[in-house]
Write a structure and sequence with these properties.
Elements (H helix, E strand, L loop, with lengths): L1 E6 L5 H9 L7 H6 L6 E7 L2 E7 L7 H6 L6 E7 L6 H12 L4 E7 L6 H14 L8 E3 L8 H9 L12 E10 L3 E10 L1 E3 L3 E4 L5 E9 L2 E3 L1 E3 L3 E7 L12 E3 L7 E10 L6 E8 L2 E9 L8 E9 L6 E5 L6 E9 L10 H12 L3 H8 L5 E2 H8 L3 H10 L2 E4 L2 E4 H21 L8 H8 L5 H13 L4 E3 L2 E3 L9 H15 L5 E2 H7 L4 H13 L3 E5 L2 E4 H18 L1 E2 L1 H8 L3 H13 L3 E4 L2 E4 L6
Parallel strand pairs: 1-3, 1-4, 4-5, 5-6
Antiparallel strand pairs: 2-3, 7-8, 7-15, 8-14, 9-13, 10-11, 10-15, 11-12, 11-14, 16-19, 16-21, 17-18, 17-20, 18-19, 20-21, 22-24, 23-24, 25-26, 27-29, 28-29, 30-32, 31-32
Helix pairs in contact: 11-12, 11-13, 15-16, 18-19
GO molecular function: GTP binding; GTPase activity; RNA binding; translation elongation factor activity
Subcellular location: Cytoplasm
Pfam family, one: WHD_2nd_SelB_bact
Amino acid sequence: MIIVTAGHVDHGKTALLQALTGTNADRLPEEKKRGMTIDLGYAYLPIGDRVLGFIDVPGHEKFLSNMLAGLGGVDYAMLMVAADEGIKPQTVEHLTLLHLLQFKQILIVITKADRVDSKLIEQLLQKIRKQFPFLAQNPAFITSAYSGQGIDELKQYLLKLENLSDQNKPFRYAIDRVFTLKGAGLVVTGTVFSGEVSVGDELYLSCAQQKVRVKSIHAQNQNSSKGVAGQRVALNLATELGKDEIKRGDWLSSLEIMPFSDRITIKLKPNQVLNDSQAVHIYYAANHTIGKFTRLINGENDLVELVMDKPLLMASGDKLILRNADDQQTLAGATVLEINSPKRHKRTPERLSYLQSLLQCTNSIERIKFYLKNQTLEVAHLQWIEQLTSSQLRQLQQQQHLFLYRDQVFSLNYQQQQQQALLQHLAQFHEQHQDQLGVSKARLWRMSALQQPKILIFHFIDQLVAQQQMLQANGWLHLPEHQISFTSQEQQLWQAVEVEFTKTTQPIWVRDMAKILSLDEQEMRCFMYKAGKMGLLIPIVKDRFFRQQDIQRFAQWLKVYLRQYQQISVNEIRDQLGFGRKLSVQLVEYFDRSGFLRRKGNFHLLRDEDAF
């Protein structure tokens, strides 16, 4: 478990940690020389089977980004106030940051108690509690690293603290230092935000399209077989990447890395009166960038858009600190409500209603139920934004009656909505086109659910067909009550027409079929177009028909060819199928019109392989 120490420069933070643990948290020669902690110093207190870790974050305002790097993934803090100096500007600054980052508990620790009398210490405590009402009920300890006063009492209290870190979540680790060790190779250090890692684990690295393997772990100042949430950990990585390719602010995760976000929605916890829109410095874990926030509703802090110059890797519930344009004042803390927020239509009533409903969700389960009420999500996306392991997702699937299909997760309510819409749109099509049998899967998807994943809508259609709520004939979908059929006389004519198609590999013109069967051309035209509406024939141009199964055969051949070669020309179709150039042009243009292919210059590429 990690505990943050914060406070004004030279208020005895490092000395107190040395008294508690026997470790001097000042690592750098410059720190020892100057007497202040510049980068993240850390010390450890092994007691029985537990190890308490302390991050001594810098007090000097110049090193704020280093301080904030120490706050990620930590729940407890000790605010150090020197008895002989009292509350200083950096005391206020650090306490503000801890409060805005919503630490679970902040302990008041008065240091250097040997330098003043007890009456002045009591007055200082009263002043702290009065000036900062949110500390009114928080524990306070009077200590002196020099005399040892209060050290044991503080140590015993710290040992009783409950570990609140999220060890059951996926492993997520913020890198704040990168270096190489002779004989070991690449080493990164950082704080474990959540989960656990073991030697031999493979992890995703946010800055590279490759995994890295954990060779060894140094946790809580000792070699270990694993590191867990709330610990300060060094990882020795097996990777071909060099030290300069991994940087402070990168992440390691057991989950596949999702796209970075440069536009998010946040809930503000302001430290002062803010404009409805203003430029800010953004601090998040070991990252620092600039950007601009804009309230989505003027005067309200709950729904705020934050646009960042540098995209960052975030998840729901993560905490940020916002400072003013010259980086001199802390303006607000912020909680991530949504990543990858839309650029447009962000203030529509529907959008604001969605965000306000999301805001009312108090935990991960409530958010997941809300997400999936009216939409589907990619499994990997849901796991990332809510930081869920695969086993946790399976458990949620059983408890919340969720469904998985391929890479999509959805609720029964969403499935019922989509299937009802499919049936309604098909009924509308029948009403408007009573002379046609139905539509293809691809067309019904475009009519009913174009914004939804095609693979999932096709799955819902297959379910409706299996349940006989829809029927499928010759590739056409229709409702059971909607039928187009031949009369007995037309059925006999169809048998004769089909015989003529079996005699050739070419399409047949209406006029030619009329001559062959000695029928009136207009009568034959009406018949062949009726066969087309029934899905038996397909006109590639006006009055020139292939059988439906011939078109399907050509489409399947094109799929195989284009998967291998990516593109095809008219001349290649002519040579492969043995058609003349004119017919080859007609056939490929039919496939372009149907959405199966698309033209690019003199070539044709696969556009939608599910169209046939």
